[in-house]
Write a structure and sequence with these properties.
Layout (H helix, E strand, L loop, with lengths): L15 H26 L6 H35 L6 H35 L12 H18 L9 E9 L5 E11 L10 H7 L3 H17 L3 E2 L7 E4 L4 E8 L4 E7 L14
Antiparallel strand pairs: 1-2, 2-6, 3-4, 4-5, 5-6
Helix pairs in contact: 1-2, 1-3, 2-3, 4-6
Amino acid sequence: MVDDNAWSPPKRRNGIWWIVLSGLLLPAGWIAWLLVALAGYNGVDSSNRSLSAQTLGDVVVTVMCAGVPLTGVVVLLVQRRRDRSVTLVGPVACAVFAVLAAGTLGYPTTGVAKSWAADAERRAQPLTELETSRTQTESEQDLAGVGELAVRALGEDVRSRDVVQVTLECPLSNLQEGTQYMWRWSVPSDPKAEPQTDSERQADRLPADEVERRLAPVRQVFREAGLRDADPYGWDIRALGDDWLAEANATVTRSSGDVMLETTCLAGGPGNGYDDE
């Protein structure tokens, strides 16, 4: 016969539901953080808007993943003060999950927040004097002037059909939209011409001393324009600059010649809020 009045130890309460919830939230938070980061990278060239949204999303994920187990720690400790059957297993486990969440999610979230702050500060800066030094008309005229000098130094005539002028969008120092101007002269410019075979390209090449002799005046034009020699990267001449003229290239063969120049990113262009004067 069992004695109903026999003593039995009190049932221990480990806060198992807080532990399970905290344990499930942590990997879910990692996945959510990665999804928010991917959404931010798919934004418009990591713009201030996408960075702010990414920072906000990361903060929400981090607060939830670290806040829930931290809440479990507080709740279980308060319950333990009132009821000694509540063990320390739950608070300790929840504390571990809170630390893991703060470390694995909080640290990268801080990095994103710093990038957002730096991006916002950069966008608040005024445009540089160089970026506003030329209007669209001045940029195109000055670029064409240097290009035509280089072509004449090559011993060729500048014909309109051999010249291509294009503009490209580019980010200014404060990440506003700017314009880069390009000018290119090349002959022959027949779009219907058949591509050269390897043997034809080899036969079309000039000896190195002949290339240098023909391009030496062009190199001098580039230097007088404020450019310095650089590795050619497929061109016979490549020059770089730190002023409005950013790069110039030239090459020559027995049957063709090519001169290309481009400006730095300038504010004086269509659609960027800096009008021609």
